[in-house]
């Protein structure tokens, strides 16, 4: 564990120094993500100027939902997103070789070494929006509730990681992964806008269990709003355990048949 | 001397599918595929003693890199096995990975946008190198490789030679017992190649690192390795002293003849024509026959010029690669 903390510390330090060297990139990331947040905010306002509630959720719930997704997005974009994005290319061109010979989990190294810390700044308006939503709902927040919310956010952060990696592991067997990245983009965009409470029946099963993007911001919002406490934890824990197991199995399966690219 | 690399009947098959040309072939391959298997490494065995530098040579696609990838655990063998430093690379974990290093001339472990020192620090964390030992190694290696002035320069701004030196330094920081080098001088100019060779020799001598080296540059092999393993189409065709191998193939010379007038001359003994036109011919002649050949040529032809040439190192190796069967 000490080794992993030290690797993370070096990666963090070097990424900060890299981003200080290339200042334009630093602000570009923040600008692009900030624009997406503004678009989301405009959509949110447009919807709530027409309706009073969505799937039983009021304006306050939706503010927490959008804010939560923004925080989640900021953190995964700022940490593992760009690293995981490199994975298929590393598998295809054999760059993975150099990670496989290091005495550290190669997936951890690949995922963390392209951190883009500029994106994390965007979590600030996200947090602001969550606080505004909580105030709107007049939630009796206490440290335990907030801790629960952060804990659920962490679970969703890890679940998002599993889904991202799973969408890229097929590179061990397939040449083009466009269909997977298209599916992922569509799912993220959809679940950024539509809260999980709106899904019923088979759609709920698909978006909560099979492609659990629907859980991402919905469960932390429910925890903060004091709704479905234990079921939410059970659902999050079960889905995360299942996807972590699947990711681990497929990753090792892929490595077993990895032939590397000829040099 | 103790053997630290033992390879026993190692085989590696790659499977792939064949696709016919054109749209019809593409459509057909959607439904039926002809799977083919190619043996990249075939029944390969050898041992390497501690502190040796051994060259692994062979033409493109011979299986050199695949062999190194199996010894480092990157790819799994189809059959056979290897033991390196007491570990089976196909199943070894991080303990084994801490004991060797791999440098690939065509792939970089350095962070492109940052000075190489940042990658050194990353390797310190990955290999859990104690601070004192890390600083000592960085100091020794950067002085030795004469790259101290470039330590603060982003890798992207270094020359290819400087970058390769940094790659080798990064791979030596954890004091590996075995260093696998796959084409470390590829693309480098003659000066940088020579520097890298000198440095590797010094590292081998002072750090007692066992080195297994592949290179297409015979000068690398000739100046670093007393022993070579020649691989062709996945099979070992020679394993022994480099000089002895070269001597076997130095038994002939090339004789260039230029004629004053169009000539068609065929020597009556064992000279092989390599090139021939009306005014010019090149023959490969056994050394023992040189005098007889020259006398015969002077008598039979109206010569404008003649030249006797020993084979270049690369040419010798080309001959070795093209020989059938196993070289003794």
Structure description:
The complex is a heterodimer of chains A (263) and B (328). Chain A is mainly α and 263 residues long. Chain A has one domain. Chain A is 72% helix and 0% strand. In chain A, helix 3 (59-78) crosses helix 11 (218-224) and helix 8 (143-166) runs parallel beside helix 12. The two termini of chain A are 34 Å apart. The relative contact order of chain A is 0.13. The mean pLDDT of chain B is 88. Chain B has two domains: 3-8 and 45-246, P-loop containing nucleotide triphosphate hydrolases (Rossmann fold, 3-Layer(aba) Sandwich), CATH 3.40.50; 251-310, Alpha-Beta Plaits, CATH 3.30.70. Chain B is globular. In chain B, strand 6, helix 7 and strand 7 (210-214) form a beta-alpha-beta unit. Chain B starts with a strand and ends in a 6-residue tail after the last helix. In chain B, helix 4 (116-127) runs parallel beside helix 6. Helices cover 35% and strands 30% of the residues of chain B. Chain B has a six-stranded mixed sheet, sandwiched between helices. In chain B, strands 11-12-10-13 form a four-stranded antiparallel sheet, with helices on one face. Chain B is an alpha/beta fold. Chain A binds chain B through residues 2-3, 6-7, 9-11, 13-14, 17-18, 21-22, 94-95, 97-98, 100-104, 109, 113, 256, 258-260, 262-263, and chain B through 14, 61, 65, 69, 72-76, 93-95, 97-98, 100-102, 104-109, 111, 113-114, 118, 121-122, 124-128, 154, 182-183.
């Amino acid at each position: 564990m000490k080794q992993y903390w030290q690797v993370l510390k070096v990666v963090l330090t070097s990424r900060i120094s890299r981003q200080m060297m290339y200042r334009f990139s630093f602000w570009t990331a923040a600008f692009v993500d900030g624009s997406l947040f503004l678009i989301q905010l405009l959509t949110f306002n447009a919807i709530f100027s027409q309706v009073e509630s969505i799937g039983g959720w009021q304006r306050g719930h939706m503010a927490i939902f959008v804010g939560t997704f923004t925080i989640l997005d900021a953190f995964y974009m700022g940490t593992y997103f760009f690293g995981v994005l490199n994975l298929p290319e590393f598998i295809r061109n054999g760059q993975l070789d150099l990670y496989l010979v290091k005495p550290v989990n190669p997936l951890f190294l690949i995922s963390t070494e392209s951190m883009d810390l500029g994106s994390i700044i965007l979590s600030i308006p996200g947090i602001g929006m969550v606080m505004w939503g909580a105030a709107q709902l007049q939630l009796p927040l206490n440290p335990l509730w907030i801790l629960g919310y952060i804990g659920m956010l962490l679970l969703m952060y890890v679940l998002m990681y599993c889904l991202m990696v799973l969408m890229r592991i097929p590179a061990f067997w397939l040449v083009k992964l466009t269909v997977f990245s298209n599916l992922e983009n569509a799912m993220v965009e959809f679940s950024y806008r539509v809260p999980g409470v709106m899904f019923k029946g088979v759609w709920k099963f698909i978006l909560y269990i099979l492609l659990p993007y629907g859980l991402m911001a919905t469960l932390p919002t429910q925890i903060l709003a004091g709704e479905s406490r234990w079921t939410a934890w059970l659902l999050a824990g079960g889905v995360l355990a299942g996807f972590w197991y699947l990711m681990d199995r497929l990753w090792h399966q892929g490595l077993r048949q990895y032939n590397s690219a000829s040099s | 001397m103790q053997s630290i690399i033992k390879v026993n009947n190692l085989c590696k098959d790659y499977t792939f599918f064949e696709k016919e040309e054109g749209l019809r072939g593409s459509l057909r391959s959607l439904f039926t595929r002809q799977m083919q298997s190619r043996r990249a490494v075939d029944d390969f065995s050898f041992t390497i003693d501690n502190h040796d530098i051994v060259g692994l040579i062979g033409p493109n696609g011979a299986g050199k890199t695949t062999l190194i990838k199996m010894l480092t655990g990157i790819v799994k063998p189809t059959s056979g096995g290897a033991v390196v430093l007491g570990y089976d690379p196909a199943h070894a974990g991080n303990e084994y990975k801490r004991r060797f290093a791999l440098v690939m001339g065509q792939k970089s472990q350095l962070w492109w946008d940052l000075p190489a020192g940042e990658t050194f620090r990353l390797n310190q964390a990955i290999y859990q190198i104690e601070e004192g030992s890390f600083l000592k190694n960085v100091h020794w290696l950067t002085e030795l490789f004469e790259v101290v002035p470039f330590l603060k320069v982003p890798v992207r701004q270094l020359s290819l030679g400087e970058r390769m030196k940094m790659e080798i330094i990064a791979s030596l920081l954890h004091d590996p017992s075995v260093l696998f080098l796959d084409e470390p001088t590829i693309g480098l100019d003659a000066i940088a190649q020579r520097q890298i060779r000198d440095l590797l020799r010094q590292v081998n001598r002072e750090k007692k690192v066992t080195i297994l080296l592949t290179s297409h540059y015979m000068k690398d092999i000739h100046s670093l390795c007393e022993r070579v393993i020649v691989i062709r189409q996945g099979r070992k065709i020679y394993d022994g002293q480099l000089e002895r191998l070269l001597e076997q193939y130095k038994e002939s010379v090339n004789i260039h003849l230029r004629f004053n007038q169009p000539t068609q001359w065929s020597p009556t003994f064992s000279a092989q024509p390599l090139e021939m036109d009306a005014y010019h011919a090149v023959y490969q002649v056994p050394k023992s026959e040189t005098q007889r050949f020259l006398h015969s040529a002077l008598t039979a032809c109206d010569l404008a010029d003649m030249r006797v040439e020993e084979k270049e190192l690369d040419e010798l190796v080309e001959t070795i690669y093209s020989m059938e069967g196993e070289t003794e």
